[in-house]
Amino acid sequence: MDINIHAAFLPHTDPDAALAFYRDTLGFEVRNDVGYAGMRWITVGPAKQPETSIVLHPPAVDPGITDDERRTILELIAKGTYTAITLATDDLDGLFDRLQASGADVVQEPTDQPYGVRDCAFRDPTGNLIRINQRR
Description:
Layout (H helix, E strand, L loop, with lengths): L6 E5 L3 H11 L3 E8 L2 E7 L7 E5 L9 H13 L4 E6 L2 H10 L3 E8 L5 E6 L5 E6 L2
Parallel strand pairs: 1-4, 5-8
Antiparallel strand pairs: 2-3, 3-4, 6-7, 7-8
């Protein structure tokens, strides 16, 4: 049995800002862009990995979520503590420079971690934490 990661989900609070960040800054291709009832789901991913995607979705829209839960989720997103994703690149320093030049919110400059990974961290326009590892 072979199991692959097909999609990860990250919330967005501004679809146009999310699209600009993931497409224009990170260089991901847009695979789908669907609107419904004033909301928007955008699927992006790296061109060389057509079977792996990130779905940028409106947060807290599930009809089963209470108003209190919705408020809590939106507060966590605003703090940047709701969710995260880790990406990898062959050129961490080059990508860091590109992200920093774009005005992305830097959380951590490239660092050699004591557990053996060299990485950096940013927040996307919604506040989601994005860690980027140097590929070995």
